[in-house]
Amino acid sequence: MQIASIHERPTKRVAMPRIRSGLSLPKPLGKFLTYATLWVAFVWSVFPFYWMIATSIRGKDEIFQRPPNLVPHAITFQNYIDLLVGAQFWRFALNSLILTISVTIISVLISVTAGYAMARHRFKGSVMLPLFMLYGQMFPPVLLLIPFYVQLRYLGWLDSLYGLIPVYLSYMLPLCVWLMRGFFSQVPFSLEDAARMDGCTRWQAFWKVILPMARPGIVAVATWVMIHTWNEFLYASTFILSEKKRTLPLGLSGLIGQYTTDWGVLMAGGVITAAPILIVFFFLQRHLVSGVGGGAVKG
Amino acid sequence: MTVHKFLRKSAVSAAIAIGLGLSPAMADNIVFWVNSPLASGPDAPIYAEIKAFEKETGHTVEVQPVAHMEMERNLFVALSGGAGPDVMALDIAWVAGLADAGLIADLSEKSKPFAAEYQAGPLASGRFDQRQYAMPLYTNNVALFVNDRMLKEAGIDKAPANWDEFHKAAVAMTNKDKDTYGLTFGGSRMGAFQLYSFIWENGGDIIDETGKVRVGEPGAVDAVDFLAKLYTENHAMPESVLTAGSWDEVNAPFIQERAGMLISGDWALSALEKGNPKLEFSVHPLPTGKQAATVIGGYNLAINANSSVQDASWQLARWLTGPRSVELMHKYNRLSATVAATTPEAIAALPEKQRPFMQQADAGKARPVVAAWSQIHNEIIANVWDSVLRGKPAKDAMAEAATAIQGLLGQ
Amino acid sequence: MMKRTSPRQELKKTWSSMFETGRGARIYPYLMVLPAVLVVVGVVVYPLVYGILSAFYDVTLRTLGSGKMNFVGLRNFERVFADPVFLQASWNTLVWVVLNVVAQLGLGLALALLLHRAIPGIGFFRSGILVPWVVPSVVAVLTWRWMYDPSVGIANELLLRLGIIDDYHPWLGDTATSLYAVTIESIWKGTPFVMLLLLAALQLVPRSILEAASMDGASGWRKLWHVILPQIRVSFAIAAVLTFILTVNNFNAIWLMTEGGPLNSSEILFTLAYKYGFKRFDLGMASAVATMLFVGLVIATTIYLKLIQAREGD
Predict the structure, then answer these.
(1) Which residues of B touch C169 (CB under 8 A)?
(2) What GO biological process terms are annotated to this protein in UniProt (chain C) (predicted)?
(3) Chain C stretch 97-156, residues whose beta carbon is closer than 8 A to a beta carbon of chain A
(4) Roughly how many angstroms between the first and final C-alpha of chain C, as a whole number?
(5) Domain that residue B110 falls in
(6) What is the pLDDT of residues B339-393, one digit of tens each?
(7) Which CATH number belongs to the domain containing residue B287 in this structure?
């Protein structure tokens, strides 16, 4: 959502170019095939999530039934009520929200500037630098737990949400910078030069011309950061100790029992955790459409 | 009634008096990592218990629940980062490694006066190299769950009490057309855990007290062979045995009434009742082989070797594992590891289906407390079970395991 | 700063003029890159060096407890090579990476092309297809494990009803299927991100180019191959590198479904490193595996990107 606010003026939706990637087929048939494929992809993607929902609302005695019922017989929302009524859930959600918003805003700001600079300007290290940053990502994160822990302890940042922010940034930024550099390198910079000839400052040209064009990329990057921060588990579970500072994924793992697990509650927790991001994305996905639109680029 | 209460109260205060006698009367702050099922919400019984402790001793306790799945890793990271809690709840299988590394405090001296209060098996699970490193918080063992209806329909009127009857019952309840099986069992390390009781019952052992590796001996081999053949020859176990890595997966066929028997601990009771309220089942001591035995599980409390509040930590550990644990664990439907919990009156106070577990507590045996136990269990024995199920002769698999374990212990 | 007499306007002017010309124009790219570099270098360097150095020391629970770690040279590597599981895990890693990367890129591109259309209801499909990515990984993996279950698995039931199998199958318990069963989950989870990246890249393909291609009478496939793909090749290359890295370092899927079993049939190098590190508490061996993975990844991505650049240079 914060991305949308970068653009002060609402941009008109421009009809997208139509890409027909199949063989030339008669129109109704092509349309049918398109929708059929879309539905197949949709069902494939959504089915496990549907199964989570179905498990979370069926009676506990129905979870182990064989054969499993595709549609729950008796529906109960008890699992959701149990979760949502507890004060803990809301605290976890608030912690996750604070963390996600901070990390998303910071990493988008930093990666947009860095990505733009790298794509637009050839300077010493402009080619190797992003690669070096990416190298830091290639070491299995689990094995960095101990040194990270030692580092945070030294700084006194253990068991705090703000202590997680630099850790997350170090993990997200290399990818974000990479992605942003990729998107910016697709932007035709001739437009920027044209704008500057028209008297815009460098800043204005960037703000008014380049940024709107890179909007889909920014949305993609922001979504990536948002989802990964919201769901991050490994670092949070190691560096957050007290109950008050837990994030949602930690709350979720607390629902997995030592011996047996209440699957209904766990699945309800999963659905509740995923829901906010899904809703945000549903509104955000419109902005995956380029602000200026490919059509504006001519000559 | 009142006499009972009075006795208990005085026992508690005596314990505290001893604890206080050792430490200056100072208020310390204790950081306590507890496995999250015990602290699932603000009104979990442990919080009330800790409040009572704080009131009695003046110390403060900071409870930090950690999920079972992450406990081992988080402890490792924190302890090796030079930090970590003062008091920690440990699965009994983790004690040896931490004790061996010198990361948890030696409690031998402190615990000596109270040793007789704890059941022998659970107490042994906290003993490494002749020293006591952890006190049992709660215990469990495995028993035999039987589906009464299926057993009756198979023409058997009494739950199996020995291996012979056990085998017969398993085969009798197996019916390919009706898709029913005699016994549901775990795969990999879940199955390995279930194997141990049978190895001991057969007079075999894994590693004995003198440190000798005995998995290659006939007592152990025959037990593995006996169970594996229930799957490979009699087809009396469903295919879930190949994959079941959690108790839910082990329980599932029993809940569905497709498997007539289940070997599991008291934790299965509530899961079975939730999963199938109509299920009619009974719980029995494990069928005996050459002798009775059952594998002990549970959690212990240990103290960080680097904690600056050793005495206060001991007081907390003792408070939670001592006489009060009978009532505390009762609230969780778990079993206290104190001797007081095994008296006939205490057993009678338990829900009916929990009684067999405490009744066979004497036959309970702790797994070997050796530093490399995690690896022996998770990799070596788990692989034995997996490969035997897939047709490898038990003799060969166990002989290889013996060599591998020998190699580990030699290190 | 606030009480300065110079108005904001002026400050802005100085700033801009600094960047417009002269030395400022040369430093400002560096200034823009600086925050990112600072954060990443500041946070990651110590852990990374520590992680790599651990491979050459005996770091176990015991030595960590006593604080005395000895330099052991390449002994950790020797011990890893001596483990028969290592070879199997290496092979599995190769299969795992190739299947995941190829499938995720292929499906991701196909979905991006499909979703890059202004047709009614497209937002609904876009959001739906993104679902796998949004579901918290732990819950997603456990759901799949539950769906594969040989006792209650809905996947088994559906395949049975469709007539593909005769009886419930322990997909995760069969050494022949376990790795592929986990791979399917991983593809399901990873594809939406590739789709999103490519969808965003497709937005930047100038319409004029497409129109020109259509006027030339290019067919669908040729247009895709000669016009669209070259336009998004940078994003595609990035998506490839990211998928590669994320797949090699994907831990949850295998760990929570099979723990590398049964009989190591789904063990990959990452899960092996985890076992060494957090089950055996031998961080030396774990770091040896991790370092090899790291070096492998660094070499592979560097070569790949050099190749891409070489082609771009043409």
Answers:
(1) 239
(2) transmembrane transport
(3) 111, 113-119, 123, 125-140, 142-144, 146-147, 151-154
(4) 51
(5) 2-141+297-365
(6) 999 999 999 999 999 999 999 998 999 999 998 898 999 999 999 999 999 999 9
(7) 3.40.190.10
Beta pairing partners, B281:
B147
For C50, the token pair is 């520590």
Topology annotation, domain A4-8+86-296: MetI-like fold (1.10.3720)
Same domain, B358 and B405: no
- Is B302 found in the same domain as B244? no
- How far is it, in rounded angstroms, from Cα B258 to Cα B246? 18
pTM confidence score: 0.88
CA distance linking residue B137 with residue C293, whole number of Å: 41
Q: Is the pLDDT at C74 greater than 80, yes or no?
A: yes
Domain boundaries, position C237: 85-281
| Length reported for chain A | 299
Tell me how many helices (H) and strands (E) chain A has. 13, 0
Are residues B234 and B307 located together in one domain of the fold?
no
Give the distance from residue B240's alpha carbon to the nearest chain C alpha carbon, in angstroms: 6
Number of domains in chain B: 2
Cα dist from C285 to B79, C111, C254, whole Å: 19, 41, 20
* Rg, chain B, Cα only: 22
Give average pLDDT by consecutive 10-residue segment, chain B, 411 residues.
Answer: 52 50 68 91 91 95 91 90 92 92 94 94 93 96 96 94 96 94 93 95 93 94 96 95 92 95 94 93 95 95 95 96 94 93 91 92 92 91 95 96 93 64
Residues near A235 by beta carbon (within 8 Å), at least 6 away in sequence? A141, A145, A148, A164, A167, A168, A171
Handedness of CA B99, B104, B105, B110 (dihedral sign): negative
